[in-house]
Amino acid sequence: MKDDVFALLAKLLREQSGLALPRDKEYLLESRLTPVARKHKFDTIDAMCQAIKGGQKRDIERDVVEAMTTNESFFFRDAGTFDIFRKNLLPALVTARTNKTLRIWFAACSSGQEPYSVTMILEEEKAKFAGWNVELVATDISNEMIQRSRDGLYSHFEAQRGLPIQMLAKYFDKDDQGWRIKAPLRQRVKFRQFNLLEGFATLGAFDIIFCRNVLIYFDLATKRDILERMSRQLARDGALFLGGAETVIGVCDKFAPHSGHAGIFVPAQPVALDRAVGQ
Questions:
Q1: Judging by DSSP bridges, how do beta strands 153-154 and 178-181 pair with one another?
Q2: Interacting residues of 145 by C-beta distance below 8 A, sequence separation 6+
Q3: 3-class SS shares of the chain: helix, strand, coil, % to 5
Q4: 249-267 pLDDT, tens per residue?
């Protein structure tokens, strides 16, 4: 790939999604953007980039960003994380929330397995939440992923990957195309397109934020900015879930590790929540 083509794509991705793309990731551009070029009737990625330079931008740029920001996801990824969520954090919040309100945000939810994993846990624990207002907000930069998540349809491989067989039988319906999570669970999650480079105040305040295996794709300044803004949306006794190999140490001083659990962080100091208008 020519240097000017790589530079164009790297600049586009950084400006529109925050994605930092080092030169050694050229293979990723080639594998993900070749189908995009073909979709738009170009023989090569270079030819597609010439069209972007020439002003044929909107649809092509959108598809480029969606192709490069779509990440792998599966049910109950890192099972220990969900055990801590269920056995430690949920009971603590049930005790602390006298207003019986719980809000959880899934940032960069991809194809929806993570929010649906939590939805199944909440369904299993529903006796504890009788009379509660539980709001699950799942966002992703990709409109395609948001639509996939809303549909809740997964292939046989996707449905079985990480998902206990008893939950598959209990919470999914089988059809000719695969396995679809049951409508009542789909309806509990509010999916919306959202770019993490945008302001978070319109989303409101949250008790728990999941932002797992996402920040690794951003440069240090963008990571710090996102984490600092997330700290303003998180309750002082809330928790931030990152990927098991991710950390805030050396990136943002607004969070501290949670009881030694890898990938889970709590506010390091009390903050004023940056709530949405009307909340």
A1: antiparallel
A2: 66, 70, 109, 110, 111, 112
A3: 45, 20, 35
A4: 899 999 998 876 788 999 9
The backbone region for 14, taken as left when phi is positive above 0, alpha when psi lies in -120 to 50, beta otherwise, is alpha
Structure tokens given for 50: 């010439």
Instruction: Encode pLDDT of 44-54 as tens digits.
Output: 999 999 888 87
Listed residues 69, 95, 118: the one ending a domain: 69
Whether residue 241 sits in one domain with residue 133: yes
End-to-end CA, the chain: 49
Q: Confidence band (pLDDT; 50, 70, 90) for 238?
A: very high
At position 191, the amino acid (one-letter code) is F
Q: What is the pLDDT of residue 258?
A: 84
Q: Are residues 145 and 114 in the same domain?
A: yes
Is 90 exceeded by the pLDDT of residue 71? no
- What is the average pLDDT value for the chain, to the nearest integer? 89
The angle subtended at Cα 114 by Cα 179 and Cα 211, nearest 5°, is: 155
Tell which residue, 140, 177, 144, has the closest CA to residue 158.
177
> Distance between alpha carbon 102 and the CA centroid of its chain, in Å?
19
